[in-house]
Amino acid sequence: EQFIAFGDSKNKINIYNYQILMHFYSTKPTDSPLQANDANCYLVNTISIPKLVLEYHTMPISALHFSSLKQNTLLSSAYDALILIWNINADSFSGEKVGEIPLKHEITDFVLYPDDTYILAGCTDNNIYIIKTDFDNKTFDIVNVLISHESIISSIVLDPFIETTGRFASLSDKGRLVITSFNTKDNILSILFNDDDLVNIKHKCNLQSKKIDWSFDGRWIVSVDHHQIRKQSLLHAR
Questions:
Q1: Cα separations (Å) of 195 from 106, 144, 154, 175?
Q2: What's the whole-number mean pLDDT along residues 186-201?
Q3: Nearest to 84 by CA among 74, 72, 93
């Protein structure tokens, strides 16, 4: 909980010290003009807060994940088909690129296994690449590919108990939800659920974003999509 990172459409990663950021929230006046209409939402001007800016990607950032095991190690992906590995130095508040994983297609989302042993990367070729990781030796090998989607991968999420169940879920931009089991012993993928009920054909909407999440108890998957229908902005949750 030392750092919090944000990616932007200008290809940059902005990193803040989490404690300093939370201190700023807790000490700002209650009558701050930055307060939004929603009582639980604030528009915060971060100009005065020290931040670290990481620049290397040549296209907008698509996902960011800190390693659970390697302290202050950040992974970032972008539409330039790269997953980058960064080391954040807490003492000097600086960042160094220490590795990269190139793929052949633009990366729309990725997730990192809790024990850092695998990366699941969704790409614009509609596939999810299963990457076996060895951070110490800096080797990253694709061991399998999920090809069940017919459109671009918009979101990937892991079962909270994935180390036992091997399950992960993925959602494409047309709304297909696929739940897959991955056996780490032989790197075999098995489709558990493939549902096109969320595929929006009737409205032929101009989709802007679809995201999913998995409940902490492993029982529920939530889908949220934001799109335009007849020039109206709609938000659906399922």
A1: 25, 22, 15, 9
A2: 83
A3: 74
